[in-house]
Amino acid sequence: MSAYSDNNKNRRYGSGNQTDFEKRGLELSALFEISKTLNSSHKLNFVLDNILLVPMGRMLISRGVILFRNTENTYQIRHLKGLSKELLNQHITFQPVPDRPLLANSLNDGSAWQFFLKETKIELLIPLKGSMHFNGLLGFGKKLTGKPFSDEEIQFLSSLGNIAAQSIENITMLEKLNSANRALDQKVQELNTLFEIGRELNQIFDRPSILKQLSYSLMGQLLVNQFFVALKQNGKLRIEYRKGSKLNADKVKDCEHLCASIKEIERPLFIGNENKYPKLQALGIRLIVPMIYKNQTSGFIFLGEKLDHSPFSKTNLSFLSTLANMVIISLENSRLIQEIIEKKRLEEELNLAKTIQRQLLPAKMPAIPGYDIHGLNIPSRQVGGDYYDIISLSEDEYLFTIADVSGKGMPAALLMSNLQAGLHSLAGEHYKPEQTTARLNNLIHRNTTIEKYITFFVLILNTRSGAFTYVNAGHNPPYLFSETDGVTALEDGGIILGMMPDVVYQSGSGLIKSGECLVMFTDGVTEAANANEEEFAEGGVIDFFKSRFPLHSSEQLNTLLLEELHRFSNGDPARADDITILTIKALR
Amino acid sequence: MSGFTVERSDKDDISVLYISGFLDLHTVPKFEEAVQNLVNETHFKIIVNFQKLDYISSAGLGVFMGFIEEIREQEGDIVLCCMSDRVYKVFDLLGFPALFKIVSNEEEAMQKFNSAG
């Protein structure tokens, strides 16, 4: 230092040693002050401000600039004073890169960077070099005094540059470290969110709650509050969840069709200005995230803009994909569980219906002297509504009935129980069959809707004489088989029960003689179908009984008919409908 | 499972919600209900006091996102105050300070409404 000051005394300052020393002292203390200030701050802008403003103030310089090196020769303008802000962030290529203080007036080869110095009236360039990576340039315009930069001044600015470079390097390193830490913290936060929703999704199985959880996680994690979720069900895309004031129900509904046209996408799709879905874009949608289940796109999340208008980052996208797939798995699981529960419920209901039906049918055949009677009912899986019954009216009179209630399962069983109760209470009143039928018709009509009805056959037999009267309300005609008189269909009656009130029914009558056989059955018998979808039909029933009725008991006939139906339909004939057969043979 | 509670106290036309415990996906419905009740009663000037809140997950922040637009459309706002550093860090990481007023004490939060009004 002393050599330096010796060297320079009297040269520029033209004053005595005393003044010279004072100046040197002042410079050193200024450098010391700056060094302290720069190192006390972690804010880059504050440091850059100081690096420019301190010398500008001390030396009355009107403009200054700081450039950071980007690549080998290219520098970017990072900070400036006394120059147009438009220059900020501009890139300038230096060839060669100055490695020591450089005065612009010493240059003149017309290259771009020299032109830049001329334009901006930067007269002095000082290289900034940190101990590790940082490289930059410090530039100053001319002094307001008009005097050129002295060696001492250049020396001072170089020293300042060294201190500044180290400061900048420390701060940029710190900033890098901070931003890496922050990115890591954000990643951890994302993972926490995924972990949290994963844990929560394991505990809930109803769809609305699952979608609600998705909604909270999306909004909190990504600052998005405009979105909707569309899910495929039975091949159709339906909008299942919607959030945000800009996405009103009608507008979103309007897009349902359009959304359905989006085919398989493997990863999130941005909706920019030029895209295939201008309508979605107009709705504010910016991103479509596929929900992938077992390699199939099973739904989409349609996302609007973030509330802070920032773009979706790469980690946002991978977060979204993971979240979407976790949620779809949970939704699918909930669907499967619902299906199992529903199936279980249906099965229980069917079992209940089956029990009701069984309890409405006669537990055993009454022993009627002179008659061989057998009833048989095979309920189908879905439980149709077949009903038959035998009610004793007096010592010599029995009521036989067979009916088929519309529908299946529990509703059919309940209607059937209605019919059974009505019939049993009417049976005590000694009505004629047409009166009983008319009253049952009114009862059923009052208590059911129009699509519920019953085909019904009732017959009252005088067991002593074999004379009978009957009413057929739209049921398959029973047949009376006789070796002498052939086959008679019992068809007299009227329309099915429950269609309209106050119907007048006709009755028919007949006589069953010794050895003759009367067969009542439901459409489960005639509509049993073979592989060619041909039905067993009335002809089948007639042919079957015609040849066999004299040979077998009622029970044998019924059992043989069932076997015949099995053969005919090559499997379970009661697949589609209940099968009911009620056979009466006169023995006297 | 750690608990979560929310208590309400009205000061003139400003409602303060004091939340405590853990606000995560599990407890979020409880908090959402409290805010929804305020909205239903057209109380749109809301302060949420975080002093006794130990933990918040992203889903907890989702509740604020879900209401803020509706509340601001009604000339109201949600001002957040008294967060611990740990809780504030989550808000900061997710970019909430740019969108919500977050202040250090309740008086300051009150002033946000009074100066705005």
Q: How would you describe the overall organization of this protein?
A:
The complex is a heterodimer of chains A (588) and B (117). Chain A has 588 residues and is an alpha+beta fold. Chain A has helices at 2-8, 17-40, 44-59, 112-120, 151-201, 207-222, 249-260, 278-282, 314-360, 409-427, 433-447, 523-526, 537-548, 554-569; strands spanning 64-69, 74-81, 91-93, 102-103, 122-129, 135-141, 227-233, 236-243, 269-270, 285-293, 296-304, 371-378, 385-392, 397-405, 454-462, 467-473, 479-482, 486-489, 493-494, 508-511, 517-521, 579-586. Chain A has 3 domains: 2-175, GAF domain (Beta-Lactamase), CATH 3.30.450.40; 204-337, Beta-Lactamase (2-Layer Sandwich); 361-586, 4-Layer Sandwich (Phosphatase 2c, domain 1). In chain A, the strands form 4 sheets. Chain A has a 6-stranded antiparallel β-sheet, with helices on both faces. In chain A, helix 10 (409-427) packs antiparallel against helix 11 (433-447). The longest helix of chain A is centred in the first third of the chain and has 51 residues, at 151-201. Chain B has one domain: Transcription Regulator spoIIAA (2-Layer Sandwich). A 5-stranded mixed β-sheet of chain B has the order 1-2-3-4-5, sandwiched between helices. Chain B has helices spanning 28-40, 58-73, 85-93, 106-116; strands at residues 4-11, 14-23, 45-56, 77-81, 101-103. Chain B is α/β, with parallel strands linked by helices and 117 residues long. Chain B is globular. Helices cover 42% and strands 32% of the residues of chain B. The longest helix of chain B has 16 residues, at 58-73. Chain B is built from 4 helices and 5 strands, in the order ββαβαβαβα. In chain B, helix 1 links the parallel strand 2 (14-23) and strand 3 (45-56). At the A-B interface, helix 5 and helix 6 of A face helix 2 and helix 3 of B.
